[in-house]
Amino acid sequence: MIYLKSMIKVIDNSGAQLVECIKVLRKNPKNFASIGDKVVVVVQKARPISSAITGASAANRVKRGDICRAVVVRTKKELTRSDGTVIKFDDNACVLINKNDEPIGTRISSVVAKELKEKVLIKLFH
């Protein structure tokens, strides 16, 4: 579960490494985010911008202090699937998105939960 002030690892190539949750975007009044939920985050740690990067990837880079939206792709909280299996990840992770729900980065560098394909975010992970 992701709460306010939770530190989340970023697993795409948008330039951010670590972000902090500042708002959970949910329709129900619960104040936590789980896998597949959208959150508003602020970048706490980012990779240095090098001059060797050109093209679209350079334009999409985020810097420290930028405020972005993100989709939670992994949580440490155990998740029970409908077939009875229980999954649990080692860390909390997210992917940065823009206002049109399109990913900022071009690659996702790690494992994501299968439950994301069942939610609305199908275009992110195909």
UniProtKB/TrEMBL annotation:
Keyword Cytoplasm part of the UniProt annotation: no
Pfam families: Ribosomal_L14
Protein family according to the UniProt entry: Belongs to the universal ribosomal protein uL14 family.
A cellular component term, taken from the record's GO annotations: mitochondrial large ribosomal subunit
Family matches, as PANTHER family: 50S/60S RIBOSOMAL PROTEIN L14/L23, LARGE RIBOSOMAL SUBUNIT PROTEIN UL14M
Function, as annotated: Component of the mitochondrial ribosome (mitoribosome), a dedicated translation machinery responsible for the synthesis of mitochondrial genome-encoded proteins, including at least some of the essential transmembrane subunits of the mitochondrial respiratory chain. The mitoribosomes are attached to the mitochondrial inner membrane and translation products are cotranslationally integrated into the membrane.
Name the record gives this protein: Large ribosomal subunit protein uL14m
SUPFAM superfamilies tied to this protein: Ribosomal protein L14
GO process terms (BP): translation
